[in-house]
Specification:
The protein has helices at 35-58, 65-78, 146-163, 172-185, 283-291, and strands at 3-4, 23-24, 82-83, 95-99, 102-104, 119-128, 131-140, 189-190, 194-198, 205-209, 219-220, 227-230, 233-235, 241-243, 250-252, 258-260, 263-267, 272-274. The chain is of the alpha+beta class and 292 residues long. The strands form 5 sheets. Strands 1, 9, 10, 12, 17 and 18 form a 6-stranded antiparallel sheet that branches. Strands 3, 4, 6 and 7 form a 4-stranded antiparallel sheet that branches. Strands 5-15-14 form a 3-stranded antiparallel sheet, with no helix packed on it. A hairpin with a 6-residue loop joins β9 (194-198) and β10 (205-209). The structure holds magnesium ion (2 copies).
Length: 292
């Protein structure tokens, strides 16, 4: 789930030259996690990563987004956590499920059948022992168009370009700059209506983790112990979005495709740790980890 960047917006600069975000010196509102808190977050994040990996493996044409939501809620609870999204500001489900031109906050529905060729985004969060994990993946369902495949690949690469900038002393602007440059070089636009965020005791914390060189959001140096949800959204055409009448589902204004990947990332003393990393998760690993 994303933060509406307008919540954090400041008055834009009147300058003609592209302005850079102001460097914020206060860390008020930004939680620096202790080792004990980080260990709890590792577990929440592992649960999120496990659910997303399993959904990526099991999804097939003919299922509905409500089927995926039911699976996710059951698995999150089975692993000892609570879905972060369900009830959050009234959101009715445990995952956000977005198809094709849907950008964020899609409400799962038994009427939404997943078809071969769809670009499917699944975003979910889990909280246990008071700490949240948050991650999103984009799945190519069956064989998708070469254009869709390229967008999905670029969206994942772009997330990792941002993550590579995470280390103490670097700033949020370093993350945003790497994201912006990579997405644009790949030929895509970046949605500016939503940003990433700090994550921990609350699903959405300070700071806003912006994805472009905006001057509307405060910049900040990264410190070890910060936990950030980094989540750039790439669009094939216009970066602009609109919200449907359900007051949740956000779509592209021109019906172009949209793709997103998100990880919960810890700033370590030397760089970063991707807490929602799925790459080493196997069925056995899930059993081992959760029996501890
Ligand atoms: Mg999310
Ligand atoms: Mg998020």
């Amino acid at each position: 789930m994303n933060i509406l960047s307008k919540l954090f917006s400041r008055k834009s600069s009147d300058s003609q030259t592209p302005a850079l975000p102001p460097l914020r010196r206060s860390y008020r509102g930004v939680e620096i996690k202790s080792e004990a808190e980080i260990e709890i977050m590792r577990r929440s994040a592992f649960i999120v990563a496990t659910v997303l990996k399993e959904i990526a493996d099991l999804v097939e044409p003919g299922m509905t987004t409500a089927d995926l939501d039911a699976y996710a809620e059951n698995r999150i609870r089975e692993m000892g956590a609570t879905p972060s999204f369900k009830g959050y500001h009234g959101f009715p489900a445990s995952i956000c499920a977005c198809l094709n031109n849907e950008v964020v906050h899609g409400i799962p529905s038994p009427k939404k059948t997943i078809c071969a060729g769809d670009v499917l985004k699944v975003d979910t969060g889990a909280v246990q022992n008071g700490y949240h994990g948050d991650s999103c993946i984009t799945i190519a369902v069956g064989r998708v168009s070469p254009a869709a495949e390229d967008l999905i690949r670029a969206a994942e690469e772009t997330l990792y370009k941002g993550i590579e900038q995470v280390k103490p002393g670097n700033t949020l602007l370093d993350i945003a700059g790497a994201i912006e440059d990579h997405a644009k070089a790949a030929g895509y636009t970046i949605v500016e209506d939503f940003t990433g965020h700090g994550v921990g005791r609350r699903l959405h914390e300070e700071p806003a983790v912006f994805n472009t060189r905006t001057d509307r959001l405060p910049n900040m140096r990264l410190k070890a112990g910060m936990t950030l949800a980094i989540e750039p959204i790439l669009n094939a055409k216009s970066p602009h979005t609109r919200t449907l009448r359900d007051r949740w589902t956000v779509v592209t204004v021109d019906n172009g495709l949209s793709a997103q990947f998100e990880h919960t990332v810890l700033v370590t003393p030397t760089g970063y740790e991707i807490l929602t990393d799925r790459s080493h998760i196997t069925a056995n690993a899930v059993g081992d980890r959760l029996s501890v």
